[in-house]
Design a protein that fits this description.
Belongs to the NAD(P)-dependent epimerase/dehydratase family. UDP-glucuronic acid decarboxylase subfamily. InterPro entries: NAD(P)-bd_dom, NAD(P)-bd_dom_sf, UXS-like. The structure is a single chain. With 446 residues, the protein is an alpha/beta fold. The strands form four sheets. Strands 3-2-1-4-5-6-11 form a seven-stranded parallel beta sheet, sandwiched between helices. The chain is built from 13 helices and 13 strands. The structure holds nicotinamide-adenine-dinucleotide. Nicotinamide-adenine-dinucleotide binds next to helix 5, helix 7 and strand 5.
Length: 446
């Protein structure tokens, strides 16, 4: 646009110069000399000169009009070789999304001021969701796809499952990459939702060194990617950063009470380090970041038998097994339904605030109260069985969500009694489907 403007003004000046030239070069031959200075040239020669000058003027005017009216026109690129074609396609995509970071690198990004060149339709955002095959990630992917975005899921399937995403297979706006975030990856995206990390104690304690590597090296890799392509980065941290809290409910300004050498530290301290890295990339390198501290979340597609209390109780009640309560059952937790969390994550990503933000449901339940709700919803005859408590299990957990309410306009809308029935049919189908498979397997082996 700027170049076309300058070329047209150049033309106008040139025009000006041309129209002046005859007068300045020779006052005798100019057709524009005034009548009180009669010209020596006259007759057919003069009228021919006048005609030529007029043609020139009209030509210049048409050219100027053309460059103003067609700013985006450019010579057709030579796409004969595959490499040139690929480069052209990457460049076109980058232009469409409003950034040419693909070609110029993060530091040289061009701001198109929201204008899409003529003939190019604006697409949705390109978003990577690490851990997108897991419980929370797959629900987030559903929302992003239904909003019209293009989503790339990066997952190593440690706890995630393709079945959680199978309904998107074949959608051109969806891609699934089997990849471990501990290894670097380069993708051209506008936003990164970084969820990859086993979230339940059973899974994160399975290989603690791998868990902390995922949290530290995996987060470093994703922040590096954000820096390289100029993407906005959102970290899903956890209420576990508050440890066994000495403040109740927990506000974001509370620094926590975490055992740095306990069996849960690979997760708690891993997430704390991930938060530190995120803030250092933001402060030191100007990366746009967002931090969510997620409190206990439940819903369809949670791993069965992963040691998280809601999935445990629901699976046990459906299987007609006793509900196992650890300790005296008086420790409290707050439970948020997954769609509320996804709404909070998306508001945080799209909003202007870095965080950290607590995202959780402040409704607080003791484990015994939760067991009673499960009895009400699934099986009134379910028995409760007490077991010794696990190490470093926090006594109380309840989010203060004032900050999210005020700055994100977000709060949960689904109560535990409304949300639990929504996950029962998914669990019933998976449990009894799996049991059928298991029995047919054992029948085969006998
Ligand atoms: N669900 C909750 O209650 C809760 C609470 C607090 C924080 N969070 C956080 O939210 C995120 C998602 O949790 P979730 O409940 O969906 O857990 P999940 O275990 O269902 O999902 C985690 C996903 O990450 C993938 N993953 C793990 N390690 C990976 C690696 N190295 N490379 C690539 N992929 C990897 C898993 O395969 C899985 O798909 C996690 O970061 C978790 O810490 C969840």
């Amino acid at each position: 646009m700027a170049s076309s403007a300058s070329s047209s003004s150049e033309l106008i000046q040139r025009n000006h110069h041309i129209t002046q030239t005859p007068a300045s070069a020779s006052s005798h031959s100019s057709p524009f000399t005034s009548s009180d200075q009669p010209s020596k040239t006259s007759g057919p020669a003069a009228s021919m000169l006048l005609q030529r000058a007029l043609f020139l003027l009209v030509g210049v005017a048409i050219a100027a009009l053309f460059f103003h009216a067609v700013p985006a026109s450019s010579p057709k690129p030579d796409l004969s070789s595959p490499v040139r074609r690929a480069t052209y396609e990457v460049a076109s995509e980058a232009v469409e999304s409003g950034t040419v970071s693909a070609i110029l690198g993060a530091d040289q990004r061009v701001n198109f001021g929201g204008k899409v060149p003529l003939g190019l339709k604006r697409k949705g955002l390109r978003i990577v969701v690490t851990g997108g095959a897991g419980f929370v990630g797959s629900h987030l992917v559903d929302r992003l796809i239904s909003r019209g975005d293009s989503v790339i899921v990066v997952d190593n399937f440690f706890t995630g499952r393709k079945e959680n995403l199978v309904h998107h297979f074949g959608n051109p706006r969806f891609e699934l990459i089997r990849h471990d975030v501990v290894e670097p990856i380069l993708l051209e995206v506008d936003q990164i939702y970084h969820l990859a990390c086993p979230a339940s104690p059973v899974h994160y304690k399975f290989n603690p060194v791998k868990t902390i590597k995922t949290n530290v090296v995996g987060t470093l890799n994703m922040l590096g990617l954000a820096k390289r392509v100029g993407a906005r980065f959102l970290l899903t941290s956890t209420s576990e950063v508050y440890g066994d809290p000495l403040q109740h409910p927990q506000v974001e300004t509370y620094w926590g009470n975490v055992n740095p050498i306990g069996v849960r530290s690979c997760y708690d301290e891993g997430k704390r380090t991930a938060e530190t890295l995120t803030m250092d990339y933001h402060r030191g390198l100007g990366i746009e970041v967002r931090i969510a501290r997620i409190f206990n979340t439940y819903g369809p597609r949670m791993c069965l038998d992963d040691g998280r209390v809601v999935s445990n109780f629901v699976a046990q009640a459906l299987r007609k097994e006793p509900l196992t309560v650890y300790g005296d059952g008086k420790q409290t937790r707050s439970f948020q339904y997954v769609s509320d969390l996804v709404e909070g994550l998306m508001r945080l990503m799209e909003g202007e605030h870095v965080g950290p933000f607590n995202l959780g449901n402040p409704g607080e339940f003791t484990m015994l109260e939760l067991a009673q709700v499960v009895q009400e919803v699934i099986d009134p005859n379910a028995k409760i069985e007490f077991r010794p408590n696990t190490a470093d299990d926090p006594h109380k957990r309840k989010p203060d969500i004032l900050k999210a309410k005020e700055l994100l306009g977000w709060e949960p809308t689904i109560s535990l009694r409304q949300g639990l029935p929504l996950m029962v049919s998914d669990f019933r189908q998976r449990i009894f489907g799996e049991q059928k498979d298991a029995s047919s397997n054992s029948a085969t082996s006998q």
